[in-house]
């Protein structure tokens, strides 16, 4: 995110109206807007692979799968963010045109410029959504997926899905998102993704 320091502080309504006419996406936090930066091809590949698998799994089940052009609102007063992927199975979001307010699953694909915000500020904001039960962080540069899942005690627990040098050969890691009763091989999410070579800059 890049702060737009020359813009005046906006109300949530002013932001939503203003942002519809902008050529690039902006997130909204405490009256200020922040321009969104672009992602890499591996970033896009990972997001598209997972969104496609979720869409296929949830077809006909009353859920909406959204990608990076759709906003999530923490409340009607904001903040407003653009997750890489989110799923809402809440009837209140069925007719939404501007903002999703009741997702059960949010996914962010990490990048060097956004990782700190995705792990910190955004996760703090997302945890305020009372319908959210899973938050997922995907590393597009190595096979590693972190799933933060809300347990029955109201605590967020981490489940890590990964493949590294200690993973037995011919073992297929299966990723599970309980919020939408979804599972798939981790290789599905990383299909056609080109990873950095050793020593290559991110």
Name a few traits of the molecule.
202 residues, alpha+beta, tt1808, chain A, 2 domains, six-stranded mixed beta sheet, three-stranded antiparallel beta sheet
- CATH hierarchy: architecture of the largest domain: Alpha-Beta Complex
Mean residue pLDDT: 92
Biggest pleated-sheet summary? 6 strands, mixed
Could you state the CATH homologous superfamily of the largest domain? tt1808, chain A
Q: How helical, in percent, are the residues?
A: 10-25%
CATH topology of the largest domain: tt1808, chain A
Number of helices: 5
Q: How many whole angstroms does the radius of gyration measure?
A: 17 Å
Beginning-to-end CA distance, first to last residue: 18 Å
Q: SSE order in H/E notation?
A: EHEEHEEEEEEHHEEEEEH
Shape type: globular
Poorly predicted runs are none
Q: How many β-strands, per DSSP?
A: 14
**SS-derived structural category:** alpha+beta
The CATH class assignment of the largest domain is: Alpha Beta
Strand order of the largest sheet: 4-7-9-10-11-12
